[in-house]
Amino acid sequence: MRMFAIVAVIGHPLYYLCWTEFQPQGFESAWLRAFSVLVALPMLFEHRLSRSDFWRRKVTLYWFLIVVYQLPFFFVFMSLMNEFATVWALSTMAACLLMVLIVFDWLMILAMAVVGAGAACGVFQLVGGDLAAQADDLLPLVPTYVFAILAGSAFNYKTELVAREKLAAITSAVGTMAHELRTPLLGIRSGARGLQNYLPAIFEGFELAREHGLPVKRVRTAHYRQMHAVLDRINAETEYTNVILDMLLVNSSRTTIDETSFEVVRIGACVGAALERYPFHSARERERVSWEQGADFAFFGSQLLTVHLLFNLLKNALYFLAQADDENGSIRIWTERSAAGAHRLHFRDTGPGIHPDVLPRIFERFYSAMPRGQGTGIGLAFSRLVMESFGGDIRCHSALGRYTEFVLTFPAVDPDE
């Protein structure tokens, strides 16, 4: 949308000058060009409009109307006013090809072309034009324009099909790898838990051996505690890796989340469990996160999935805080109760923020703004899938160099019902 707006804002004044000063045409309109620029200006700020509750659902309709007005309507009307002079007949063909590039669905392209061209013919008649007089010029061009639209759409569809097949191949490979990694992870986790269960008995036997004067090598209590800590870390890392595999499997299979196990849970319990179970790398990393336990609320969903979602937000935020190398960087989590039927959980970090060009894509599957090898591009897509399964929503607001904030909206429920 932004690129289209730039083309419109620059192109209309430029071509007005061209068609009036350098290669004068039979008809030009400064007012029509100015109006075209004016209605295109909001598209320059589309990423900001999408953040507003009022505009978010209207942006798509606005985009549809703008494309219809700027391409089929404007060019057909100007061609009619110039009696389909060669330059305007070619310009209309260029408008058809541009519409093919920005709208992938051939049926939608045809609908937009018919609506725009029909409106242009109607306005032409209203301003005193004689449509019948130009029928001989217009009718031979219609099959050419239709062919350009259909042929371009066919090539566009093929490109889109290749991209989808690539994505299908990637998701299939990812799903296979995730399944294959399950077995060794389960073995590692089972072994670690077994060692944890038997470690006290082994240490007790060691102490008894020492008491009876048997020649056994000394094991310090600190080493014993360190072994316990290592096993705890192995358990935490394998569990977190299993969470990643869960997200990979859900995203690779393109299925919806199973909602049969959903129940009424409280957000406070979910956040508390996430902070308790998350494998922080240091005490300093844990201190960066502040949970402002405000008004608690209930929602219908899954505590396990919510914890996994928070794991992903924590992982991303801590990574970018570390990259920013800001000792004072922090993460705030707080709740907001609403009487309007929905409650919110806010997750805000003071990291480097997200670039406006990247922000609209962060919830796409397999899209990652992290360096290659650092991110899989599945975490936020999984998070959105989870929130949609709860009947809620997740949005992101960010200011480059200042903060990134995720707002999770949960439909309110009565825990007593």
From TrEMBL:
Record-linked SMART domains: HATPase_c
Membrane listed as a keyword: yes
Annotated transmembrane regions: 61-81, 87-104, 109-127, 139-157
Molecular function terms from GO: kinase activity
Sorted UniProt keywords: ATP-binding, Kinase, Membrane, Nucleotide-binding, Transferase, Transmembrane, Transmembrane helix, Two-component regulatory system
EC number: 2.7.13.3
Catalytic activity: ATP + protein L-histidine = ADP + protein N-phospho-L-histidine
Top EC class, one word: transferase
InterPro entries, per the entry: BphY/WalK/GraS-like, HATPase_C_sf, HATPase_dom, His_kinase_dom, HisK_dim/P_sf, Sig_transdc_His_kin-like_C
UniProt keyword DNA repair present: no
Stretch forming the signal peptide: none
Domain Histidine kinase: 176-414
Protein name, as recorded: histidine kinase
Species of origin: Salinisphaera dokdonensis CL-ES53
Lineage, top ranks: Bacteria, Pseudomonadati, Pseudomonadota, Gammaproteobacteria, Salinisphaerales
